[in-house]
Design a protein that fits this description.
By secondary structure, the chain is mostly helical. It is built from 10 helices and 6 strands, in the order αααααβααββαββαβα. It binds zinc ion. Zinc ion binds at residues 159, 161-162, 164, 178, 180-181, 183.
Length: 211
């Protein structure tokens, strides 16, 4: 199963991640593309359309007989996806490339031997979602941990005038005078910041373990 489920879309972590990646319209695209009702409606319209070629109708007819999960996982061109979901083609392409860059969609390229035209057929790879989320979160935790270590091991000094914060070593170099206005620097207690940062890192690590 490669499409996204309503349950996954309702998961706050997944929702937030995908929203950042593809935006509200991209999320709506995923929702409709995964929903077999949209595909069924589209197939019925195709089968009832006199302009659709008989060879294509045979394919569409076969698709109407698929199980819902299989129907949503059928390879589609970007134009078909736009047609099925009612979302404009540019937005569909934009979403597909973003998903592709994060391993959440894949394509297969086929060449029409008569016209030489290339068609890209897409599938969703939402089965990669947890791995992708996990590795992006690991990077974020790594960055926060490094920041935490830096804050824990350094002593900070601040100018009350300009708000400049500097390390003990840098403050020593200017004899504890502000490099900008010359006022005396005061010791800056970053205990609150460190505590907040530590909590955030712990929270993310727990979320990672449970993902
Ligand atoms: Zn200053």
């Amino acid at each position: 199963m490669t499409v996204i489920t309503e349950e996954e879309l309702g998961n706050p972590a997944i929702h937030q991640y995908l929203f950042k990646l593809v935006g509200a319209e991209g999320l709506e695209l995923l929702h409709r593309w995964s929903n077999p009702e949209y595909s069924h409606r589209w197939l019925e319209a195709k089968l009832g359309n006199a302009e659709v070629k008989d060879t294509d109708k045979a394919r569409f007819l076969a698709e109407t007989r698929l199980e819902n999960a299989d129907l949503s996982a059928v390879e589609r061109s970007d134009e078909e996806i736009a047609d099925i979901t009612g979302i404009n083609l540019n937005s569909v392409r934009h979403t597909l490339y973003n998903l592709y860059e994060h391993r959440l969609a894949e394509y297969r390229r086929i060449k029409n031997n008569e016209t030489g035209w290339l068609t890209y057929l897409w599938v969703m790879r939402m089965d990669h979602l947890k791995d992708v989320l996990r590795s992006e979160m690991e990077v974020a935790v790594g960055k926060l941990s490094a920041r935490l270590r830096y804050d824990e091991t350094n002593d900070f000094y601040q100018c009350k005038n300009c708000g400049i914060t500097t390390t003990f070593n840098a403050a020593m170099n200017t004899n504890f005078a502000c490099p900008q206005c010359g006022s005396m620097l005061e010791h800056f207690d970053d205990e609150l910041l460190v505590t907040a940062l530590r909590k955030r890192v712990e929270k993310m690590q727990t979320a990672l373990e449970n993902a």
